[in-house]
């Protein structure tokens, strides 16, 4: 649906984006990750034609991105932009019209989403009367009123409590089922792991890594295994040798434990099992993959270290 091709952006001789390329496929959720100041918001503004790239181009469904394509995009910026003196109802009617909807169609959509988000009673309230979380709901609804094919969401979970975060996550997954394509910029790595199909990590305007969530976690794994067993902890530890390092443990009872081990010296899981079988009763073995937060921190630190050398 979206193809970002060799995008660079320079402002006052400063490089904001440097040769960034990626695709957003139909029916997928893509996580756009990076520390503050990485260039994520500038990139989203370029996709939405709010600003132009210095180099490169963006295409929409195979065609060079033009103003008319924006009718098929819903954009939720990080800096929220509701008119404070407008009522919720007038705000939605106004923004619906900007996106090409008739007043009748906007009202139909508005009624549906206000009821679904349980805020129908607030339709006559001015935006300035709403709590931050309530205003966030209104802006999210304004983003999806025209049923766009592509959603571009900058920190969509910011300002929400856990219940409303789950509400938004469920809606995004429903949009995905309908074939919608979604870009999410967020610092919440748990949400990335739970709902994103792929992720792209940007630091200092450059693409550091990109791939499916599983690919990225697999690429950064560190041969750590989680082993649960019943038996004597000392007997388990004595069965090991220098090829393994116990990095953490959980004691569930006097004879039930979960151990986190790091493999050393090229040892494999079969070598470990052969060493401890007969000493304890193993109930489960699981490879521990790094979280997306760990992948994020490790990748950013690695790039920063290379640049400082």
UniProtKB/TrEMBL annotation:
Keyword Membrane: no
A Pfam family it matches: ABC_tran
Signal peptide: none
Sequence ranges assigned to domain ABC transporter in this UniProt record: 2-229
Keyword vocabulary terms for this entry: ATP-binding, Nodulation, Nucleotide-binding, Transport
SUPFAM superfamilies: P-loop containing nucleoside triphosphate hydrolases (SSF52540)
InterPro entries: AAA+_ATPase, ABC_transporter-like_ATP-bd, ABC_transporter-like_CS, ABC_transporter_ATP-binding, DrrA1/2-like_C, P-loop_NTPase
Highest taxon, organism lineage: Bacteria
One MF term in the entry's GO annotations: ATP binding
PROSITE patterns membership: ABC_TRANSPORTER_1, ABC_TRANSPORTER_2
Entries under Gene3D superfamilies matching the protein: P-loop containing nucleotide triphosphate hydrolases
PANTHER family: ABC TRANSPORTER ATP-BINDING PROTEIN, ABC TRANSPORTER ATP-BINDING PROTEIN NATA
Entry similarity comment: Belongs to the ABC transporter superfamily.
Official protein name in the record: ATP-binding cassette domain-containing protein
